Amino acid sequence: MKVIPTAIPGVLIIEPKVFGDSRGFFLETFHTLRYTEAGIPGPFVQDNHSCSAKGVLRGLHFQKQFPQGKLVQVTSGTVFDVAVDLRKHSPTFGQWVGITLHAAEHKQFYLPPGLAHGFCVLSETADFHYKCTNYYHPEDEGSVRWNDPELNIQWPLANPLLSAKDANAPWLKDLSDTVK
After folding, report:
1. Which of 63, 79, 91, 167 has the fewest beta carbons closer than 10 A?
2. Residue 160: which residues within 8 A CB-CB, separation 6 or more?
3. Among the listed residues 95, 99, 53, 38, the one whose alpha carbon sits nearest the alpha carbon of residue 72
4. Which residue of the set 49, 61, 106, 117 is catalytic?
5. Confidence grade of residue 159 (pLDDT, cut at 50, 70, 90)
6. In angstroms, rounded to a whole number, what is the distance separating the alpha carbons of residues 43 and 36?
7. pLDDT by residue (tens digit) across 25-41?
8. Could you confirm whether 130 is annotated as catalytic?
């Protein structure tokens, strides 16, 4: 597997080794020893799967007291995936990185604890899978507005389909508490 660092320390792009022939393909989506050696510490305690329609934007979400590291990948379709650094003392606080994840490319994106996460669907539908390093606590969830001008995320769509929660999320400057 190939591991590519990004502009935010700890945020990584993973290109797994894919073995394919006329019958299809095989790839390893997780191996504790190899991923730990690559800078992706575990343990992972929860796996999630979402399916979304074209134009849906989910995020930007984070956990305040129980931050989660996430290893994400798309198994069907295409999404634009974003990580925003919300670690208070990080030199990259408020910065973001994004990557287009295509199911056919099998890339993964790792976000360490302390980052907000969001994605928008570019294909007709997308199946999105992610492993988390901490359990989800609904009462602990925070969010940042997807189109916050302070973040200036270059989303590939202008008018996404949003939940009421995401449409009314606070701006970064109005967050009273970010990540532990």
Report:
1. 91
2. 55, 56, 57, 120, 146
3. 99
4. 61
5. very high
6. 9
7. 898 889 999 999 999 98
8. yes
